[in-house]
UniProtKB/TrEMBL annotation:
Belongs to the plant acyltransferase family. Keywords: Acyltransferase, Transferase. The keyword Transferase applies. PANTHER family: SPERMIDINE HYDROXYCINNAMOYL TRANSFERASE, TRICHOTHECENE 3-O-ACETYLTRANSFERASE. This is Spermidine hydroxycinnamoyl transferase-like. It comes from Populus alba x Populus x berolinensis. GO terms for molecular function: acyltransferase activity, transferring groups other than amino-acyl groups. Gene3D superfamilies: Chloramphenicol acetyltransferase-like domain. InterPro entries: CAT-like_dom_sf, Plant_Fungal_Acyltransferase. It comes from the Eukaryota.
Amino acid sequence: MGVMFTEAESESKLEDLGDFLPSSEYKYLIPNVDYTVPIHDLPLLLVQLTKFQCGGISLSLTISHVVVDGQSALHFMSEWARIARGEPLGMVPFLDRKVLRAGDPPIASQFHHAEFDLPPLLLGQLNNAEERKKKATVAILRLTKVQVENLKNVANEERISTDSGRGYTRYETLSGHVWRSVCKARGHSPEQPTALGVCVDSRKRMQSPLPDGYFGNAILNVVAVSHAGELMSKPLGHAARKIREAIETVTDAYVRSAIDFLKNQPNLTRFQDIHALGGTEGPFYGNPNIGVVSWLTLPIYGLDFGWGKEIYMGPGTHDFDGDSLLLPSPNGDGCVILAISLQVAHMEAFKKHFYEDI
């Protein structure tokens, strides 16, 4: 249903928001979406421009993930800013979605797509209804460049002795560290199955690669699966290897098989994040699972509408236990920021393990 643009005025000053940690004030800056209405009645994009008493402004976007992934969303924002500065487009969007289209009729999937199965449950439970209800809180944690390098060195110690391939990436290393720390904080038994959700950009993994400026959602979510005992007792490289193995499944054939799988479904409801909000359907990567999304390589800073670059850019809301996001430092100093939502009962233990194990 098009785009909704809202202008708002705040009685606060920007300085009242402090370090922009999610708070009761912070949520008023973000467009509110009524998820009780049918998905086809929702706007594709909601924008809120908020003016503060000090003269500062905030610009918040809520955009349909059906329409775009992170790369395309940032492409849109950067071109919007470019137009606002009176400049021509830097890269014309490629709008032909048929390059990622399933056959008609779609063929049977070539692979078993574990990413579309329900993730593991806590041992002894028949569903995750109770875990969905538990109150979650958000923390913003920072790792210095030295801490990041230390973790990469630790993860690669085991790999170097067994594998001559490339070293584990920042994402593989840090996600593995988060996964292990979460298992410890939640107090899992060794035999507890646990999954980590990974978002993989398929643009350069297709044969041929998707055109530059492809505007759409080219993300495929895959899962790394292990047991808490393995993750906690084995070196960090074990977790990083599990994550790499999941990422490396994303090939041209695998992506097209996933598209065929979805097109063959009579109902896509259970795959839609929108149905996880306050309900019992839809993906849920809370206890005993976690999802780690990477913004590490996205151009998230430096947006200039003609008034200079922003003083802050970051994620909006974190709704669920298990939501987490890795961001690069805005200073370009090699630091990494983790924004993570966990159950209140587990957050302090997580912080302890997260820093102690570096």
